[in-house]
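ZP: hey, is the zinc ion complex queued? I don't see it on the tracker
AM: it wasn't, my bad. submitting now with these inputs:
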Amino acid sequence: MPALTSCLFILLSMVTPQNPPPVYVTLWFDTEDYILPRSDDAAKRVAEMLTRLGIKATFKVVGEKARTLERRGRQDVIAALKKHDIGYHSNTHSQQPTIAVYLQHTGWEDGAAEFYRRESQGAVDVERIFGVTPVCYGQPGAAWAAQAFPALKRMGIGMYLDEGDHIGLDEQPFYFCGMLNVFKMGSNQVRMALSGGASLAEGKTRFQGAYDRLRARGGGTISIYYHPCEFVHTEFWDGVNFSRGANPPRSEWKLPRTKAPEETDKAFADFEEYVKFIKMQPGARFVTAGELMKLYPDRAPSRSFNRTEILALAKAVQGEITFQKFDAFTLSAAEVFALLNDAMNAWLDKNEFPIAVKVTTPYGPTRAFSPPSGRARPTSFTWNAFAEAVRNTAGFYRTHNRLPDEIWVGVDNLPPQDYLATLAAVIEELGARGNKPEQVKIREGRFTTDQYVAKDSTKLWDWVIFPEGFQAPKIVELARLQAWTLKPAILQK
Ligand SMILES: [Zn+2]
């Protein structure tokens, strides 16, 4: 470009009104069908098409699918997928018992250990076959469980990418159990049907709706998912074999019915038009799971809080216990709990609040609260009993990396929300007056973040692979307890 034109160009770009708000589009493929060989070709074809268009997607691969590709000698498919981000989508997907079924009666720690025992081999195989640690995970069908999160971290997986109704926040990315989630995206989860006819036009309209809404609110993320097998089949590979609890041996697995070659070609042609249309929209950018983790970093763990900020948090949680939003980061209710308890613990040593309290990120409690046997709850505690409870509580989450289910004050106990409200009132009083009270009055806390977790119902677990009428109240209860860790993810400016 000649010098003068180049100056003009720079000047013009400076006077252009500010850049349009970014709309990030994450396109992901559950790569799972290890029965129909044509699905292998479909995965390769879609991966190569996107590479040709300069679009990076995320392929969440099932362990058995990766092993099947290896067994069938499909290095060409593996090479095509590897040009994109590789995620994980469980070890065997729909073979019984599926994840939510085998976790339905487990608690937090035994459930996480069992998920790890059954699912980690598939992640190891995906890593061996694709040469990368899977960047994200998402559950098969509706088989979501909170117990998966600590196990996924043990596998080195850093993000949850899927769809479902179990938990969500404002149809945008959020943090749950210390991990970035793109889940329950609602109106920001869009797709185009692969059935030809008006599908492409309708798909474009749906995308446009989400795109316009997000631009109007300053940007955000849209989630789009497919399965490579959808381009070639007319029914899912697992539906024909594992429906309603069926679990035939491998020798009896049936192939699903397939599309005619021209229907497959039409699906690919429509899909190509669809992604080209998305790519053309001003400010729209395709991002992989790995890129989302960079766009939505959790800045809280590097923060510390001063005395004024601690007092403000203590005031806030006396009204409502939930996540707290700041400009560049957010705090979960569990992080607020640990911050206030650490501040109080430090005060007990020095009779003053520390200059800076560092954020720690424990998991939530793991059992519903029960009052102690043979005791009616008192209305207050002595200062000494309260101080001892503060020290013990700090010891608990440092040791177990989670909030206690109950906080013992002598032979009495409090649920975490009442303890936090009581603690916050004490901190506020110390901030105002500076000397400790003789008696600590017990307050009631109002924990509200569990409103973002779905109620248990057969609709929540609506997946044809589950036994008819399947529900998992214990998994939902654990999710509500872990809502202590829920907070919005902030888009990096
Ligand atoms: Zn799946």
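AM: back. Residues 115 and 148 are 6 Å apart (CA to CA).
ZP: great, adding it to the tracker
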